[in-house]
Write a structure and sequence with these properties.
Length: 480
C-alpha cells in the first residue's frame, strides 16, 4: 500500500483473469511473437502502402508537410507512451491482489488524462510558431485537429497497456490494425478514384480511426481491467516517478528519429521537398523496425522477470534478442545495398529517381539500431530508466550536432550521414556501458544469429521429413 490505506472490497471489480498471477506459459514467445510481429507488420504495411500512394498523389512540397506533421505528433505520442506504458506494465505484472491492480490502473488512467491535457496545451500554443519556422502554413491547422485526436486516443493506449501487462497481444494487434488500416483504405479510395488528396482531410480521417481503434482496444482489455472508485495519489506519484525517465527517454528517442527531418525542413539547404526525398529512403529503412519493435515489446516483461535470476540471465536475453533481430536484418541490408535504385523507383515513383544512394546510407541504421533499442529496454527492466534517459538524450544531442553540420554541407545526403554518424557513436558508448555492467559481448549476437539460421534450417528439414510443419514447429519450441 502506497498511502497506508486499504480500499474496501466493494471498491474493486474482480474479474477472474485479473486475480490470477501472470505466468509465462509454454509457447509464450511463439504466440506473443506472432501477434506483436503481426501488429508491427500490419502498421508498417498500412503505413508503407499509404506512403507509396501519397508519394504519387501529392507534390513533394505537400507530402513533405504531411511528413513533418506525422513526425511532430509521433514525438508527442511516443513520449506519452513512455510515461505510462512501462510503469503500468512493470507494476501490474508484479501485482498479486485485485485491490492493488485496481489502484494502479486508475492511477495510470489519471496520468494519461493529465499528460494528454499538457500535450493539447503545447500543440495549441506552438502550432503557429512551428508552422512559421518550418515554412509550412497548413501545419498549424493539422496540429489543431490532432488536439482532438490525441484525446480520443486515451482509451486506445490505456487498453493496450493493460493487455500487454497481462501478456495478451491479440487485441493490441487488432486495435493497431484498425487505427492504421482506416487511414490506408481512405487514401487508397481517393487515389484509385482519382480524387484530389487533401492533407487536412487526412488529419480528420486520423481522428475517425482513433475512435474506432479505441473501441477495439477497450473491448479486448475489458476482461483484464479493474478500477478503484478513488484515486490513489500515492500510486500516481509512484508511476510518475518511474515513468518520468522513460517519458524523457522515449521523447528524446522519437525526437532523435525525427530531428533529421525537422532540421532538413528548417535549414536553407533543405525544405519540405527535401523532406519528401529523404522520406523515400526512410520508408524502406523503417521496415527494419518490425523485428526490432516486436522483440522490444516481448523483451520488457521477460527482462523484468529475469532480473530476479541475476545479471547473467539479462545478459543472455539481451544478446539473444539482438541476435534474433540481426537474423532478419543482415539479409535485408545486403539486398537493399544491391537494389537500392530500383527500390526507390518502385516505392516512390519516377519523381524520386536517382536518390538510391540516400537509401544505401540509411539502411545501415538497421544494423546498429537493434543494439540501441534493446539497450533501452534492458535498462528500463533493470529499474534504471534514468540511465537510459541520459544515454538517449546524449544520442539526441549528437544527432542534432551531426545533422546541423552535414545538412548544411550536403543537403539530403547530409541528413543520412549525420544520423548514421550519431547512431554509430551512440552504439559504441552504449556497448561500453553494457560491457562494464553486464559483461555483454557485442559480437555474441552474431553467433546467436547463426544459431537461429540453423534452427530455421532444422525446422524446414524436419517439416519436409515429417510432412507436417506444425509438428516441426512444436519440436522447435520444445528445444527452446
Amino acid at each position: 500500500m502506497v498511502d497506508g490505506r486499504r480500499n474496501p472490497p466493494s471498491t474493486v471489480r474482480r474479474p477472474p483473469s485479473a486475480v490470477k498471477p501472470i505466468l509465462v506459459k509454454k509457447g509464450y514467445w511463439l504466440r506473443s511473437g506472432f501477434y506483436t510481429l503481426s501488429e508491427k507488420a500490419a502498421m508498417l504495411v498500412f503505413g508503407f502502402g499509404s506512403g507509396v500512394l501519397l508519394f504519387r498523389g501529392l507534390t513533394k512540397e505537400v507530402f513533405g508537410v504531411w511528413i513533418l506533421f506525422l513526425s511532430i505528433t509521433s514525438i508527442l505520442e511516443v513520449g506519452r507512451i513512455g510515461l505510462l506504458q512501462n510503469a503500468l506494465v512493470k507494476y501490474l505484472t508484479t501485482s498479486k491482489t485485485p485491490d492493488e491492480i485496481g489502484r494502479i490502473t486508475t492511477a495510470s488512467l489519471v496520468l494519461n488524462f493529465i499528460l494528454t491535457g499538457i500535450i493539447v496545451f503545447f500543440l495549441l500554443v506552438l502550432s503557429h510558431p512551428l508552422s512559421l519556422w518550418l515554412d509550412a502554413p497548413v501545419l498549424a491547422g493539422l496540429l489543431k485537429i490532432y488536439c482532438l485526436t490525441t484525446v480520443l486516443l486515451i482509451p486506445f493506449f490505456q487498453g493496450n497497456y493493460i493487455q500487454q501487462a497481462n501478456l495478451s497481444f491479440k487485441g493490441i494487434f487488432y486495435a493497431n490494425a484498425v487505427k492504421a488500416g482506416i487511414l490506408f483504405f481512405y487514401i487508397a479510395w481517393l487515389f484509385f478514384n482519382k480524387i484530389e488528396i487533401g492533407i487536412v482531410n487526412l488529419a480528420f480521417c486520423q481522428l475517425a480511426a482513433a475512435v474506432a481503434a479505441s473501441l477495439v482496444s477497450v473491448a479486448f482489455a475489458k476482461k483484464y481491467t479493474i478500477f478503484s472508485k478513488a484515486v490513489d495519489w500515492g500510486w500516481v506519484r509512484k508511476l510518475f516517478r518511474f515513468g518520468k525517465y522513460v517519458f524523457g527517454t522515449n521523447f528524446s528517442a522519437q525526437l532523435f528519429k525525427n530531428v533529421d527531418k525537422i532540421l532538413l525542413a528548417a535549414l536553407p539547404a533543405g525544405g519540405a521537398a527535401a523532406v519528401a526525398i529523404y522520406e523515400a529512403a526512410i520508408k524502406v529503412t523503417n521496415l527494419m523496425d518490425v523485428p526490432t519493435g516486436s522483440m522490444a515489446s516481448m523483451l520488457f516483461p521477460q527482462s523484468a522477470r529475469r532480473m530476479e535470476e541475476g545479471k547473467e540471465a539479462v545478459k543472455r536475453l539481451y544478446e539473444k534478442a539482438v541476435g534474433a533481430i540481426l537474423a532478419f536484418m543482415v539479409p535485408a541490408i545486403l539486398f537493399v545495398l544491391v537494389f537500392a535504385d530500383w527500390i526507390i523507383l518502385v516505392v516512390a515513383g519516377s519523381d524520386y529517381e536517382g536518390w538510391g544512394n540516400v537509401l544505401r546510407i540509411t539502411i545501415f541504421f538497421g544494423l546498429l539500431m537493434p543494439y540501441v533499442v534493446q539497450f533501452g529496454t534492458v535498462l528500463d527492466s533493470m529499474g534504471k530508466p534514468n540511465v537510459n534517459f541520459f544515454y538517449t538524450l546524449m544520442s539526441l544531442v549528437l544527432t542534432v550536432v551531426f545533422n546541423l553540420v552535414f545538412i548544411s554541407m550536403f543537403g539530403v545526403y547530409g541528413a543520412a550521414l549525420g544520423t548514421l554518424s550519431a547512431i554509430a557513436l551512440t552504439f559504441i558508448i552504449m556497448q561500453l556501458y553494457l560491457r562494464k555492467h553486464l559483461n555483454v559481448n557485442p559480437l555474441k549476437p552474431f553467433s546467436y544469429m547463426l544459431g537461429f539460421y540453423k534452427q530455421l534450417f532444422d525446422f524446414g528439414l524436419n517439416g519436409i521429413r515429417n510432412g507436417n510443419l506444425r509438428t516441426a514447429a512444436k519440436e522447435a519450441v520444445g528445444k527452446e
